[in-house]
Amino acid sequence: MTDKTPSTPNDLTFADFGLHPGILSAVTEAGYSKPTPIQAEAIPVVLAGRDVMGAAQTGTGKTAAFSLPILNRLMAHATTSASPARHPVRALVLTPTRELADQVAESIALYSKSVPLRSTVVFGGVDIGPQKEALRRGVEIVIATPGRLLDHIDQRTINLSQVSILVLDEADRMLDMGFLPDLDRIVSLLPKNRQGLLFSATFSKEIRKLARNFLNDPVEIEVAARNATASTVTQVVYPMSADEKRRAVAHLIKTKKLTQTIVFSNTKIGAGQLARYLEREGIKAESIHGNKSQLERMKVLDAFKSGSVDVLVATDVAARGLDVAGMPCVINVDLPYNAEDYVHRIGRTGRAGASGEAIALMAPDEEHLLQEIEKLIGTSVPRLKLDLPAAASSSRSGSNRHERGERRSYQSNTPPVDEFFLKPYEPSTAAAPKPAVTTPSNTTRKRSVGVLLGGGRY
Ligand code: AMP
To answer: Range(s) for CATH 3.40.50.300 in the chain?
Structure first.
């Protein structure tokens, strides 16, 4: 049913794709000199009108991999006419989270800024009014989360009868979040004759089933699997007691002089507590998790990208979809319950060509989690001993309360459910609804940290 695409030559440039000059100039202005592997493989296939099933995560350049050829294909319909009827929705991009929807929308706005194609983003948790207005004026490309899109469908504020291209971005996460019935309903409203593109971190059985239902004879594209842990990433596990972990994190950050580091925690409570502990240790740290409002998350991320925060303590869900890749070091203060999450976590480091370090701290009751991970990645991760300086005594005893709280969260054997999955996004009251199309300066700010910093900084 599927083709495998051949590997692409090294000297490939964006000009080789034959993109419209307006799109090409936006790419050049964005500072992209060379297509990433997923772009090199996907762009020609999408331009040719084929369906694609792509295994690629955030940070690989997958957004441009589908957006650029989609824009190019839609150029046949581009018009400067003001009439809404001349701007029907022709491409629909579905994403699991509003963060991702927002990021994709910003990228598409950037790539299409010099061509007469319109795009807008619709997601929940913000006033639906401006979204209705943008849709009423007419847009060729809609980026949406499934729930809010269905609201628009129910209120008849969107017409999908002319959609000829459908993108399911982070399809695995959409399934995890229970969006399958929503997807079924949305897809049932689209014309049968359409191009389908599906992107997912992995090709699980469920994803293949989804692909069979939603795609037609897709070309399978799998970029140098972040799945296999890149050879540029050095992995190490330090076995230790749960009590020692946060001290170990502080020790590693200080002795290795780490900046731009993500520390992954399995729980929101653990993430918040660890960030506060690191701050008390004089480390510029912040946490990012599902209990924080969108505005808070954006602020933390901006602080991290600008370098005013060195360490981001994150849960998997909060980190997912964030445009942060190519970090010099990733620390797992907890081993993830799901082995695939380990691959996603450490995929944040060791971007093509750059070296990276993935450190995991393992308590005795996490040994089985490491075994699962090793089975998945097909290699064993060296276990080394970390020599920690003696714990500070009486003067720090005031932090014992935190220590106990933290220990509880580390030792929990039941995977906690991150409420992020359970509740719709609620914006902070201070968060203004986003305009439909954003300015290029916004987009530039959101480029990945690794790209901005050029890899390792220590
Ligand atoms: P994505 O995986 O789509 O989230 O993209 C990750 C980051 O890489 C974004 O900040 C993009 O702006 C950036 N990017 C995408 N394509 C390229 C490229 N060919 N060269 C350099 N940066 C890129």
So the answer is: 3-222, 233-395
**Ligand 1 site, residue 294, Cβ cutoff 6 A:** no
Domain 233-395, CATH class in plain words: alpha beta
Our answer on whether the CB atom of 287 is closer than 6 Å to any ligand 1 atom is no
Ligand 1 atom closest to Cα of 32? 20
* CB 32 less than 6 A from any atom of ligand 1: yes
Residue ranges with strand state E in 33-134: 52-55, 91-94, 119-122
Q: Whose CA is nearest to atom 21 of ligand 1?
A: 32
Q: What average pLDDT values come out for the chain (458 residues) when binned by 10 residues? A: 45 94 95 90 97 84 95 97 96 92 93 97 93 97 97 97 97 90 96 96 88 94 60 88 96 92 93 96 91 79 88 82 72 91 81 75 96 88 90 45 31 40 36 35 36 27
How far is CA 254 from each of CA 233, 333, 458, rounded to the nearest angstrom? 20, 16, 11
**Ligand 1 proximity of 62 Cβ (cutoff 6 Å):** yes
Ligand 1 atom 14: residue of nearest CA = 61
Pick the CATH number of 3-222 from 3.10.310.30, 2.170.130.30, 3.40.50.300, 3.90.190.20: 3.40.50.300
